[in-house]
Every structure is written in structure tokens, then in C-alpha cells.
Write a structure and sequence with these properties.
The protein is an alpha/beta fold and 300 residues long. It has ten helices and twelve strands. Its EC number is 1.1.1.25.
Length: 300
């Protein structure tokens, strides 16, 4: 049984963390340490900056010092596949790892909680999407996790919207083994308006609209432009994987159409809770504590 926290970090404190480049902006230490405190675990969760050329060396060193577990973020999710002794079926399926667990072979077991994080954030809303229509904007790694998450919820049809024909074609070829009907459009397609009218769920899986201190205009941008969203139907759900600014301009715009709104903090909290569950073996993770810690941090 893990030692309970009796004060500040000490000689028996165990390490968990997130590895990325850059990683100083991450909310994960805030939400994870809030959960660790609530659970009474003598663990500390750190953001660990790591350049790609040092990745293998760093994770071997962390395993040697008995690190309890790691989250993996950009740009390491793909290269993490190559340094694991074992991989979960989900990690193999989507070709990316976001969670490392110490393995019995003194290395790492790799899995991916992004799918479960996205899926759980929708299930909490208790909306039945069976047979309904979904749109995913984007064809990157996040879009892939979203697609696989939606596939488990029995949607009738999922449409992928991409900027270019090449990226769309590649994405559809690489994800052609799912149960749900999948099709795709480029964003200039004139029929896109009709797809939006028929959509019950629309997910922005691009960085468009993200707050960027180097570019003050970036947070005012809206995926696919502003005018096309006049076709939104009341009661549909808009899910923006971005969580800064809060709310994004896209979610602000959707309010006038009486749409349900979810931002990226919810997915971050849910996938983080899934990771912590795997590391600690504790089933009941204080998700509400994690969510409130993230919300408070975003207000500051």
C-alpha cells in the first residue's frame, strides 16, 4: 500500500509526470497533483521537458529511478511506440502512446487514454448518439483519437473535414477498419453546409482558435470561417479540443444557436484520470477535484 502524504515532498515521494517539448504550458501537473493530494498518495507529478533526440535516454533513466508512470505528449506520442516492451491493443490500433506504465520487464508498457478520455467526456453528458451524425474537423493525431472514440458510441455516420485532399485521403486509408460509416470532405466542398445542418456532434480537432501569445489574432479565428456556422441546428453538440481561451470564439459563437458545448479541458481531465487509474490501481479517481483545479488555473 502506498505511503500517505504527511507533509511536503520527502525522500519517499514517488515521481509521475508528463514528457513533452514544449511542456511548460501543460495543465496536467495542476490537475494531477490535485488528485494525488485528494487521494493521499505520496507522489509528485511534474512537467518534464524533453527534446526528441533525448527521449529514449530520459525515459530509460526515469524507469531506472522507479518512476511510477508517465504521460507522453507532443512530439513524442509516435516515437514512444518504439521504446515499449509491450503495447496495448489501443496503442497499436491508433499508432500512438500517451501513457507509460512500468512493465515487469523493467521497461515500459505503453497505452493510450486519449480515446477513453474523449469517450468518457461525452458519456458524462448522457446523450444518446446511436445512429446520429458526427463531423470531425482535422486529420491529425487528435482527430484519430476522436474518430476511434466515436466509433465505440455507435454513430450512424462520421464525416471528416480536411483542408487538403491529400491529408484527407491518407487519413481515410489509415482508418478504414472501423464499424461506423466514414466519409470525408475538403472544407471548400459546397455540400458542407448540408452536413453541418444534419450533424448532431461536431468536433474541432485542429489548433484553430487556440490562444497564442506570439499571435494575438490566433484566438479570434474560427474553424472553417464564421459564416458556415449559421447552419447549426439547436440542440447539437460542439466539442472544441482547445481549452484556451475559455471559451473559444467557436464555442462563443455556438451559444446563439442554443448548442451544447464541451471544451478540451474535459478530455484532458478524463484522459488524465484514466492514466492515474492505471498507475495507482485506484478505481475511484476524484475527477471533480481535477476538473475544478483545471478551471481555477484557466481563470488565472
Amino acid at each position: 500500500m502506498e505511503q500517505l502524504i504527511k507533509g511536503p515532498i520527502n525522500g519517499e515521494t514517488s515521481l509521475v509526470g508528463v514528457l513533452g517539448c514544449p511542456v511548460k504550458h501543460s495543465l496536467s501537473p495542476i490537475i494531477q497533483n490535485a488528485a494525488l493530494k485528494e487521494l493521499g498518495l505520496n507522489w509528485c507529478y511534474l512537467a518534464i521537458p524533453c527534446k526528441p533526440q533525448n527521449f529514449e535516454l530520459v525515459i530509460k533513466a526515469l524507469r531506472t529511478i522507479n518512476c511510477k508512470g508517465l504521460n507522453i505528449t507532443i512530439p513524442h506520442k509516435n516515437i514512444a511506440l518504439d521504446v515499449c516492451d509491450e503495447l496495448s491493443s489501443i496503442a497499436k490500433q491508433i499508432g500512438a502512446v500517451n501513457t507509460l506504465i512500468p512493465s515487469k520487464r523493467k521497461n515500459w508498457f505503453g497505452t493510450n487514454t486519449d480515446i477513453e478520455g474523449f469517450r468518457s467526456s461525452l458519456l458524462e453528458r448522457k446523450i444518446n448518439y446511436e445512429g446520429k451524425n458526427a463531423i470531425i474537423i482535422g486529420t491529425g493525431g487528435s482527430a484519430k483519437a476522436v474518430l476511434h472514440g466515436l466509433d465505440t458510441l455507435k454513430f450512424g455516420k462520421i464525416t471528416i473535414v480536411s483542408r487538403t485532399k491529400n491529408s484527407l485521403k491518407k487519413f481515410l486509408i489509415n482508418n478504414n477498419n472501423l464499424c461506423t460509416e466514414i466519409d470525408g470532405l475538403i472544407q471548400e466542398d459546397l455540400t458542407l453546409e448540408e452536413y453541418i445542418k444534419a450533424a448532431n456532434l461536431i468536433v474541432n480537432a485542429t489548433p484553430i482558435g487556440m490562444e497564442n501569445k506570439a499571435n494575438s489574432k490566433s484566438s479570434s479565428e474560427i474553424p472553417l470561417g464564421k459564416s458556415i456556422w449559421e447552419n447549426l441546428q439547436p440542440g447539437s453538440t460542439l466539442y472544441d479540443l482547445i481549452y484556451t481561451p475559455k471559451p473559444t470564439k467557436w464555442l462563443q459563437l455556438s451559444r446563439k444557436y442554443s448548442c451544447h458545448q464541451i471544451d478540451g479541458l474535459e478530455m484532458l481531465v478524463q484522459q488524465g484520470a484514466s492514466s492515474l487509474r492505471l498507475w495507482s490501481g485506484i478505481e475511484e479517481i476524484p475527477i471533480d477535484i481535477m476538473r475544478k483545479a483545471g478551471q481555477k488555473a484557466l481563470l488565472n
